Amino acid sequence: MVQNSLIVQKEGDGRSTKVPRNVNLQKLRNGYLFPQIASQELQHLEKYPNAKLISLGIGDTTEPIPDSITLSMANYAHALSTAEGYRGYGAEQGNKELRKAIAKTFYKDVPVKDTEVFVSDGSQCDIARLLLLLGSNVTITVQDPSFPAYIDSSVIVGQAGDFEDEIGKYHNIEYLGCGPQNNFFPDLKSVCRTDIIFFCSPNNPTGHAATRNQLEQLVEFARDNGSIIIFDSAYAAYITDDSPRSIFEIPGAREVAIEISSFSKFAGFTGVRLGWTVVPEELLFSSGFPVINDFDRIMCTCFNGASSIAQAGGLACLSCEGLEATASLVEYYKENTKILVETVASLGIKVYGGINAPYIWAHFPGKKSWDVFTEILEKTHITTVPGSGFGPGGEGYIRISGFGHRENILEASKRLEMLFT
Ligand SMILES: Cc1ncc(COP(=O)(O)O)c(C=O)c1O
Which top-level group of life is the source organism from (predicted)? Predict the structure, then answer.
């Protein structure tokens, strides 16, 4: 918002260049959702400088990264100052050992080869690189509501038409309504074919993990239509029931799916930056050309490999000790989420999610998400995220994050009880 006002001030003051603004960026509505929430927090603190603000908004992790992991990064970084330990550029696809460890840890019973794993600086960046790979001529589908990077990045690369104010949607993007009315999964018989289907499970923001049967339907739909699924499993570590943790658990997915994932939410690497993408060898473009070859080209050309220090940390996460320590982190956030679910549900508010994801999705029928967001912020000094920021299907909901220090979660629960009792 601040940036927009800066641009407007400079227009017409004689200092503009002759470079036209990218028309795709011009199509974007509002700023990116999470910086908008962060700026609301800042404004709130300016208004109430003594308020003890509790942020259950943007979904950033809060707990320290386990010692054994930071020690590995520190040792690796320190060795860079020695003749024996110095390393420069690494493989663009990622450190071999780490690719193997990812394949072995996350795809143990699933047919994924280490050479199909591409290590990256996080899945948000992989979303943009995948869209670069696909170009502006493909059509896309997203869940509604969904993580906003899928739509916004698609608009930026030119895959979307104009924003239609009356319906709150971009032209040329297919929105799959996913709410409690359909168990968070649409009837695919009434869905139009697109080239690409973004699908996130467990879903951010609803917290719903798609069942095996739902994912089988999705894979069958993609196979029947010759579409590619981009499956986001960033929250797979939070799955408690027997929902699939990877799309590759579904037979036939290797011919129609790419998977993106991240160290951010299970290891607290939101600032360290590390993720990965799996592109199976069997996935082919309509010409028969392997998608993996083009993705490799993109990674070599537009990315020079993830930070070697972050990758050392990633390897430490996947050691026996690291896996145990990160599992405790996940448990901690799950307990937070359980506390919030119980509190909100006890207030007679219908809540979804929270079982297989660190997010709860609270319903306020008949109210506008932004109004509920503002009321909670003004009266309790707690930030959440308005559901409509994730798409028109999120109107009437707010997302509450379970990422936080336990004492803040308990305090937030008390404040919510006071507000809604
Ligand atoms: C569904 C989903 N995918 C991807 C990301 C981005 O993850 P990363 O930190 O790896 O870029 C997020 C971050 O919140 C997310 O919620």
Answer: Eukaryota
